[in-house]
């Protein structure tokens, strides 16, 4: 059944290709990979594994919120600041109790917890300034709401690598049910030793920048980033037209090899948007570069789009940003449709071009390819997670 759209009025974003919409758009569409840098400090093995890093200093939290201070909360603060004027105007219009916050994350402040445990092992006690709230998952949304003085619903979604996209779907439900008039929705995750070494223990972390859909792919690359949207029912240039979410529960860590879960999510999102697959101009793939993900996502894409559709993965540029990945995929898609993209460019797919038979290849976007309808279009975002949690979003500028 077709449902009403909601609209994505503003975007704050930071990731390995830049800070702010203009820099991220330029880096993304030009295929920059300079933010993928070796991080041996995060590896128990001290191997120089590349990861996507947000460069530069991050803003401090207000002193009253120092108990929440972490790299995660400071990165979210950075993207809040980019759209502070739009947030303030919305709060002034509808009141703080009508503004909700829904964020996705999978790490919260785990890096600060790691540092505290290291201090404990060295000196026998935790650092005097350490506060457990820095790594509580729920505090990701709480700290954003507190620093903005909001009184509406505020909660964090943690469904691993689909979290940020699930937050957008949840924000849409809050708007359509009338529980909020404005929603700040997105995702944030930062690098830490737990995730780097955890993915390495699963034998899915590449020793180089990841190479999605290639015959030579050997795992993913991790990264950090944040994206935050201001969502409303009132029209704006880019709409969230539909969402689809499934849980195939095939395995705790491995996806269903046939891609039935993400294919079902794509189908749901299209039905909710009231669109046929032929209306989609571009798909931002989950595209991790692991043997299993690329196989199953190729099968799902070929099932939903038998005629083919331009598609790409941004993970060779951003790294896999875990709980922020779906929100950053939505950000890449929003930028593709926005006025920031004057040439109508599509995000390129960076790989070695060595085709693995049966996997996506011919429709992977090359540098310089553009939307077939500049200034308008329909794009899809896929995100898949541990436990078989899948989500697809459909965005449009019509």
Radius of gyration: 20 Å
Distance between the termini: 19 Å
How many discrete structural domains? 1
Topology as a string of helices (H) and strands (E): EEHEEHHEHHEHEHEEHEHEHHEE
Q: What does the main sheet amount to?
A: 11 strands, mixed
What integer is the average pLDDT?
96
Unreliable runs, pLDDT <50, ≥5 residues? none
- What is the second-level CATH architecture? 3-Layer(aba) Sandwich
Looking at this structure, what is the CATH superfamily? Thiolase/Chalcone synthase
The count of DSSP E runs of length 2 or more, i.e. the number of strands, is 13
Global structural class: alpha/beta
**Beta-strand proportion:** 15-25%
CATH class: Alpha Beta
Q: What's the helical proportion of residues?
A: 25-40%
In words, what does this structure look like?
- 58% of the residues are buried.
- The mean pLDDT is 96.
- The strands form 2 sheets. Strands 1, 2, 5, 6, 7, 8, 9, 10, 11, 12 and 13 form an 11-stranded mixed beta sheet that branches. Strands 3-4 form a two-stranded antiparallel sheet.
- The protein has one domain: 3-Layer(aba) Sandwich (Peroxisomal Thiolase, Chain A, domain 1), CATH 3.40.47.
- It has 11 helices and 13 strands.
- The protein is globular.
- 31% of the residues lie in helices and 19% in strands.
